[in-house]
Amino acid sequence: MAAAVVLPLALTACTDNAAPAATGGASGPIQVTSSNDACKVSTQSARSGNLTFTIQNEGSAVTEFYLLAEDGLRIVGEVENIGPGLTRNLVVTVPAGKYTTACKPGMEGGGIRAAFEVTESGSQAAADGNLKALSEQGTAQYLAYVKDQSEQLLAGTRKFAEAYSAGDAATARGLYASTRMHWERIEPVAESFGDLDPKLDAREADVAAGEQWTGWHRAEKDLFPPAGYAVLSAPERGKIAAGLVADTEELVNRTGSVELTADKLGNGAKELLDEVATGKVTGEEEIWSHTDLWDFQANVDGARIAFESLLPVLRQKDPELARSLEAKFAVLQSELKTHAKGEGFAYYNELSPEQVQRLSALVDALGEPLSNLTAAVVL
Question: In this structure, which topology does domain 30-127 adopt according to CATH?
Answer without folding.
Answer: Immunoglobulin-like (2.60.40)
